[in-house]
Amino acid sequence: xxxxxxxxxxxxxxxxxxxxEAASLVVGGQRHLDQVTLPDGVATVVMGxxxxxxxxxxxxxxxKNGDAVVLASGDPGLFGIVRRLRAAxxxxxxxxxxxxxxxxxxxxxxxxxxxLVVSAHGRDPRRALAACRAVAPVxxxxxxxxxxxxxxxxxxxxxxxLVVCERLGEPDERVTWLSPAExxxxxxxxxxxVVLVLDEPRPVDAAPGWVAGPRPLEGGxxxxxTDFDHRDQMITKAEVRAWVLAxxxxxxxxxxxxxxxxxxxxxVECARFGAAVVAVERDQQQRSRIQANARGLGVEVQVMxxxxxxxxDRLPDPDAVFVGGGGPSVVAAVAARSPQxxxxxxxxxxxxxxxxxxxxxxxxxxxxxxxxxxxxxxxxDGAHRLAATNPVIVVCxxxx
Length: 400
Description:
Elements: E1 2-7, H1 14-21, E2 23-28, H2 30-35, E3 43-46, H3 50-62, E4 67-73, H4 81-87, E5 93-95, H5 100-108, E6 116-119, H6 126-134, E7 138-141, H7 148-154, E8 161-166, E9 174-178, H8 180-184, E10 193-198, H9 238-248, E11 255-259, H10 265-272, E12 276-281, H11 286-296, E13 302-305, E14 320-323, H12 328-335, E15 341-346, H13 352-361, E16 365-371, E17 374-378, E18 384-388, E19 392-398
Parallel strand pairs: 1-4, 1-5, 2-3, 2-4, 6-7, 11-12, 11-14, 12-13, 14-15
Antiparallel strand pairs: 7-10, 8-9, 8-10, 15-19, 16-19, 17-18
């Protein structure tokens, strides 16, 4: 039998202690092995790389050498060893402790039924860090490569507050509240730690939720132009936005650039799907308009003022890009950053061919569509006519 025991600073409960006492093999990190009283003569494997440790447990179980125990942190069913064992065909007995995430939120006195939990531990951190830019609260499971400083730099331009929770449950536990700017300058954090990304200026919603994690999108998408403040009808029309959103595929863990953002309607809609979004705009006066539109619809959008493509050097690599303003040189500069998807809206026919060529030259599969809608408009006598919107050509490139 294989038993997984979640460890914390308190003594093991009786069923877990009995399983440990009966084990002939115990696998765990050195700090967990030091934390418990091991049976006399028991074989041990120090878990560094998870794969050989799991292989040792499976060999021991397959050779019928007796019971094996795996020691883990907190709740091993949360981004833990239980998934690895189940994937290997094992159905372990699990005795969890309180998870580090639950402890972290408890230490802050913060509800977390609306929190997102992400892991940057032993994996590419891009999606986890993008999620921290987009939503709050977030709990981040870190490692020595992606720690509090890296999380801080990912949210440096937001209003977030960070709480770094070190060695939770241990005698030297430490909980520190600080700004992203303060956290970005520190590297003396102790392992293991959990980083909470909170939106402290925003009051806690007292309404009871119905689902754990960030609340699902409400109110649909391709919102009416009247939902946004815009200047002189300079806004991507709802019908075009609907198609653009479908091709951009914004989602949680995805970073989107909206180049030539204008009113920020595409940026805001992408953020409503959970994506982290940077709105690139050369007109300084549009900054407050984009920020107000984002705030009014309850999302976070970073606004970067500058001329494309020079401003791109200051931005993190995107997963998807919408180009609503700029010529083929801007599209080529976007493609050079290798996002998975590039969507370009064009009013001028002369720019279609060069845009298509710029994406194709960068090894994108390219297609396009001309979109033109006619809206029902009331006449004075109560009848209706069709009022045409301006046609727009949308060119889309996707990396295979």
